[in-house]
Design goal:
Distance between the termini: 20 Å
Number of helices: 6
Helix content: 40-55%
Largest sheet: 2 strands, antiparallel
Structural class: mainly alpha
Radius of gyration: 16 Å
Shape: globular
Order of helices and strands: HHHEEHHH
Length: 186
């Protein structure tokens, strides 16, 4: 995965979510404890965190960084911050050489950070879509790439929403716990 995949996931998400009226963003996001707006803020936070981890080549721990938005920030502005954070991740991915690694529960390369970003965008866009009453599923090819990179340890992981505990499938109950594996070694 690479920066083009992050940009594509961002485009998919923003084109779906940008037209939604402000008053609908207070709804719970799918099965999460967050509102749709808080979930969008979380996307921005994680994309920014991945960008800074990779840009700093922080190799032993997470940087003590939190993206905190001011109270009362409207949904359109939050989506601008999501876009900016995603673009910063894309720039960090493009600037990182193939040998570059940074900490994500071990040394993760740029493909791992790209997959982490795409995963955050796709699964949380789905959560928000559920809360807003929108019919949307992650693009199959992007979801397959995320599964291959972050979930190779999960037998039968052929559905990103199932792998991330979002839904049950026939013969497979909803997963109560799940983890991604972006690190190159475990």
């Amino acid at each position: 995965m690479d920066s083009a995949d992050v940009r594509r996931a961002l485009d998919e998400s923003l084109s779906l979510l940008a037209p939604i009226a402000d008053d609908r963003w207070a709804a719970p996001a799918g099965g999460l404890d967050w509102t749709c707006l808080q979930t969008a803020e979380h996307i921005a936070h994680d994309l920014m965190a991945y960008a800074t981890q990779l840009a700093a080549r922080a190799d032993e721990r997470y940087l003590p960084l939190d993206l905190v938005l001011r109270a009362g920030t409207d949904p359109a502005t939050v989506l601008q911050i999501v876009a900016a954070s995603g673009h910063l991740l894309g720039l960090a991915l493009d600037a990182a050489g193939p040998e570059a690694t940074a900490w994500h529960w071990g040394p993760a390369d740029r493909t791992g950070f790209a997959a982490l970003g795409v995963n955050e965008i796709l699964v949380h866009t789905w959560d928000i879509a559920q809360g807003l009453g929108l019919d949307w599923t992650p693009p199959t090819d992007l979801a397959a790439q995320v599964l291959a990179r972050l979930f190779p340890h999960v037998e039968g992981a052929d559905d990103l929403l199932w792998a991330t505990g979002r839904r049950a499938l026939p013969g497979r109950p909803r997963r109560a716990e799940w983890t991604v594996r972006a690190a190159l070694k475990y």
